[in-house]
Input
Amino acid sequence: MPSVREFIKRLREMGELVEIEEEVDWNLEAAAFSTMSCRVGGPILWFKKIKGYPEGYTLLGEPWAGPVHQIWRRLAIAAGAPPEANPFDLGAELLRRLYTGIPPTIVSNGLCKEHIQMGKEANLLKFPWPYLHHGDGGRYTTTGCWCMEDPEERWNNWANYRGMIHTRNGIGYDPTYGQQGDIIMKKWHARGEPMPVAYYVGADVLTFVGAAFRAPWGIWEAELIGGLRQEPLELVKCETNNLYVPADADIVIEGVIRPGELWDEGPFGEYPGFIQGPRMPRPVVRVTAITHRKDPIIPFCVEGMFANSSKALGFAFGVEMWRRLRVYHDLPVVTAWGSPLGSSTWANLWISILKNSPDVVGRAALAFQGSIPGLFRSFIVDATVNPSNTEDGMEEFSLNVHPGRDIRKINAPAAHAIKYEPFLSIAEKKEALKKTVYFDCTSKLPNKRVDFERAFPREVQDWVERNWQGLGFEKPVSITQEKRGEYVMRPVFKSMVD
Ligand SMILES: Cc1cc2nc3c(=O)[nH]c(=O)nc-3n(C[C@H](O)[C@H](O)[C@H](O)COP(=O)(O)O)c2cc1C
Output
């Protein structure tokens, strides 16, 4: 898919986009509209006329958000997969594509250079960055990609971190403690050197999936993204450093992060569902150049408590956890799922596993808690439970968790300590809490359930299904295969990094 414009075209053709021609304010209005659309499982909104900004400078709200019970829908559309796809089949296919990888190609020019502003001329305030939540410390960009190079190992990392617009030539850089972009920045600063960076928005929407996806250390996401889109990403060199960005990006911001230079940043309405503060000193990018298309489209995500673009990416991250547990730990994991409900996606993981040995649940929990920063709760259910159905997950939780035996606390490695959750005190946020917990929601005793699939013999279930429409109902009842004790152990793709 060549650019965000192609994605917009596809959404329009499928009736999943509404174009808003009336003037909308970047100050809360665009965000509030998009939030409501997410809440009701509505379309993607493209704001075409932004108050105080020239024609052609537009905002695209929540580009990857899907309805809460089909959060992966627009990602499937972006990937050219059927929107009704089963999320676990879609996930396995995205992983196969990502880890097949296709290296990028370098081109000499691109649409991202239609306008070039160098040095003092570069002005971030030229663009309608949205003010996203009442109470935020500033205007933010939340759906773009930071590009940087490891100064020692000489590989490129791409990642998405929020960026607060400080001034016309200062933008915040905010990787969580322990993220790859945090480790790489610290390497530059330990050498006493500023870190060159580039940040782009727009381009093929799949580039953002690659940037927000937790790629293993040492892998350049541009290659994974090539695999995902099934054609090489075309890259062009920046004006003021040696980094490369997609040639068809909408806006590219180039700059440096100087050692020890911190500006007050935040608070910000974050993914755990609250305004996260206090305002704290954080790294800042001193802008050296801005290049952009003549009609830039700025995508945005209103982080918070509803089925938004961040939660949709959480789906991709659950899929990557499934791969890691299968490939690195050789565990019989059927699915791994970050629920889009509420604000839990990036903190909780539901894992369904085949209990083929007595210690398999504990091993899965330990493997998970050492995997990535921020994840601190896992709910482990039997192989025959589909955790993408939250009601089923909660049923297992309610029926199987023994308060004395099945809630286990584990100490987390320092790098994976949590510091953003709303229940932490300010002192704990500063210190970071090195604790994780898992809930063993698997069944331990052969108690017979009294739900439809298990309380009635198969012939009776079939009889009900056959006669359902005869009773005047529109569709036959769908009978859950998982509750009948069936599950699919999908083959996991062996990647170039395994
Ligand atoms: C909408 C959205 C906003 C995000 N904002 C941040 C952020 O501000 N800081 C952060 O550390 N991670 C953030 N993430 C998660 C990272 O993008 C993700 O962990 C990514 O893998 C980081 O790349 P890295 O592994 O190269 O550090 C965000 C993800 C999404 C989808």
About this structure: The pocket of flavin mononucleotide is lined by residues 142-143, 157, 159-162, 174-176, 179-181, 212-214, 301, 309-310, 313 (CB under 6 Å).
